[in-house]
Design brief:
The structure holds two protein chains of two kinds. Chain A is mainly β. Helix content of chain A is 14%, strand content 42%. Chain A folds into three domains: 114 residues, bacillus anthracis domain (Immunoglobulin-like, Sandwich); 105 residues, Sandwich (Immunoglobulin-like), CATH 2.60.40; 91 residues, no CATH class. The termini of chain B are far apart.
Chain lengths: 436, 172
């Protein structure tokens, strides 16, 4: 056996870097208490959701929490009776557009598997249209230590395709999971493709072998999109926006919205956006992230009304999130950490500096956690302070701490500026526009 | 109160006992998080997340003796998930790009050498030398036999020596 005394001594020397913690007791106790609070909340939520089983597991890559339960009971009850699709119904019962796509036979049963290393992956079925490829799959193994790492799309020759996952809800082993690939308009999805799964051990090791399942998409199941070109202008307290078009696909509806660059306020988002048929039926957000086309243009996704073919259709929303453009920059004195300039509503409370970071406290409830209000700090001239570090949001009671990288030792003359990229300021106004 | 009693009470749903258990382990968990994530803010988030995961599955802990290694395993799994997330999202959003450029003093030669060796070996070395864990506990945490851990440790130290030699380090 070789003697590693010198390597061990070197390791001993660097060990101190990890033994000096500058995290305060208060901060760490707070993290633990928040963890307990969140766990309690989740337990309650999980009970409500049964038997829809989207649970935590250490090997999950992404988590999708279902925050509201709206089940189209009649559709779900009907679809439950389609043999072999009960599990899919369980998974998508909160999305009535997808349920309708299934009910109208736009789901393709696949039932193909790949198995090695004692680990088996099965693709149960797929739903695809011009905008999405949704894959329902499950995996099982004798060994608890196995887990799913990544999923890719390849053409039939094994060349990887550029489509990205924009939603995934991964269940425990044995239960059905869903992964959704967003199909960009300029790339064509071939009919013959391979869905490739990367597996590994929970301790981190990834297997070189891939679990590959070739499938051929059934063209018969493809239904063409319906485009409603509107270019409808809307004003909410002098702020202008245009609903350019509504595109309806079997898997979702895409709303193209453009904000007027001349608005006095910057619009961050639209709250409660939905489609209604005027008879009490509505199609809401499907919890897929917006696509940003440019600074003032985005695509927002809703559940699909494709198969409901309502006679009348209205687009509605309750409010917009917007802030005066001259309030978009927050100013801070780096010497005293005082807030010199901030939005008039005074929701920004306090600034704290830590090692290589700056944090600002916003009074907001936990639902706002999904929105990152700042990404970087700038110097007095507005130049981005380029520093390595992390960006994040931490919940603290009825407020959220947003953190950006900031050098501890460098002398930066004030004031420091922070650009607000989102903010919980709402302008409420009921908007209803006719689509057809 | 001893750990065994605390675990018993925590399993029955006593939050104060669970809090106490986390108190006993938080320092070690934070240090481990920092050695993986190299950032204090993220380490705090990791502690919060590990608290959630541990709270939800504490009923799975069968013996008090395994509680510590079980917690560390949850932390390590979380850290692995995080680094995979960083990689996957590296080109997809601004936030993640920024997260990718984590800051930490990595100028020390031995640290650089560590980054170059096999990840399993590195993990064993970090757990043993930086976190003072016994081979038996590391085996427990990484769910591998002790003999395998010893092999990784030996291979890791060997690789570390080769790295340092190559770079004109310790044995020049």
């Amino acid at each position: 056996m070789l003697d590693f005394t010198r390597e061990e001594e070197e390791l001993e020397k660097t060990k101190t870097a990890y033994s000096q913690l500058t995290i305060s007791d208060e901060q760490s106790n707070h993290a633990i208490l928040e963890g307990i609070k969140r766990a309690n909340g989740m337990k309650a939520k999980r009970k409500r959701l049964l038997p829809v089983k989207i649970l935590l597991s250490a090997s999950i890559l992404m988590l999708v929490f279902i925050s509201s339960v709206k089940i189209s009971d009649t559709v779900a009850a009907y679809a439950m009776n389609i043999p072999g699709l009960e599990k899919v119904v369980e998974l998508i019962r909160n999305d009535k557009g997808l349920l309708a796509a299934m009910e109208n036979d736009h789901i393709q049963k696949v039932n193909l598997s790949d198995e090695h290393e004692g680990f088996k992956v099965t693709i149960d079925s797929v739903i695809h249209d011009e905008s999405n490829l949704i894959v329902f799959f499950k995996y099982s193994s004798k060994d608890e230590k196995f887990g799913l790492k990544e999923i890719y799309l390849m053409d039939q020759d094994g060349k990887s395709l550029p489509f990205k996952i924009n939603k995934g809800s991964y269940s425990d082993k044995g239960a059905l999971s869903e992964v959704r690939f967003s199909l960009a308009e300029d790339n064509v999805l071939p009919d013959k493709l391979i869905i490739s799964f990367e597996m590994g051990l929970n301790s981190g090791k990834v297997f070189e072998d891939k679990w590959n399942i070739p499938i051929t998409l059934d063209k018969e199941k493809l239904a063409s999109k319906q485009v409603y070109t509107l270019n409808q202008k809307i004003e909410v307290e002098d702020q202008k926006l245009t609903v350019k078009k509504v595109v309806s696909y079997p898997t979702h509806t895409a709303i193209h919205v453009e904000y007027d660059p001349k608005n006095s306020k910057k619009i961050f988002g639209i709250e409660g956006l939905r489609l209604e048929d005027g008879k009490g039926e509505s199609w809401n957000s499907n919890k897929v992230d917006d696509t940003w086309i440019s600074e003032n243009e985005r695509i927002i996704y809703l559940e699909s009304h494709y198969f409901s073919a309502p006679k009348k259709l209205y687009l509605r929303f309750d409010s917009i999130r917007a802030l005066e453009k001259d309030e978009l920059w927050v100013e801070i004195d780096p010497k005293t950490n005082q807030i010199l300039k901030a939005p008039k509503d005074e929701l920004l409370k306090k600034v704290e500096r830590g090692s290589n970071r700056l944090a600002i406290q916003l009074e907001a409830n936990r639902d706002f956690m999904d929105h990152q209000i700042i990404l970087y700090a700038s110097d007095s001239a507005g130049n981005k302070i380029d520093h390595k570090g992390y960006v994040g949001a931490t919940l603290d009671g009825h407020s959220i701490w947003y953190t950006v990288p900031f050098p501890t030792n460098e002398n930066i003359s004030g004031p420091i500026k922070l650009e607000l990229l989102d903010y919980p300021a709402e302008i409420r106004q009921d908007i209803k526009i006719k689509i057809k | 109160m001893d750990v065994e009693k605390l675990i018993k009470k925590a399993k029955k749903g006593d939050d104060a006992s669970f809090y106490e258990l986390m108190q006993l382990h938080k320092e070690r968990l934070l240090r481990i998080a920092i050695s993986y994530l190299r950032n204090e803010g993220e380490a705090l988030e990791a502690l919060q997340e590990v608290t959630v995961r541990a709270y939800c599955s504490i009923k799975k802990v069968k013996h008090a003796t395994y509680f510590s290694t079980w917690l560390i395993r949850i932390m390590i799994n979380y850290c692995h998930d995080q680094s995979r997330k960083r990689k996957r999202n590296a080109d997809s959003s601004v936030i993640d790009q920024l997260v990718e450029t984590v800051d930490y003093n990595r100028s020390l030669e031995i640290e650089e050498a560590l980054q170059r060796i096999d990840s399993r070996c590195r993990e064993v070395i970090i757990l043993k030398y930086y976190h003072d864990l016994k081979i038996k506990d590391i085996a427990e945490i990484l769910e591998s036999p002790e003999s395998t851990i010893k092999t990784w440790l030996y291979k890791g130290l060997q690789a570390l020596r080769d790295q340092l030699d190559e770079r004109g380090g310790l044995h020049a």
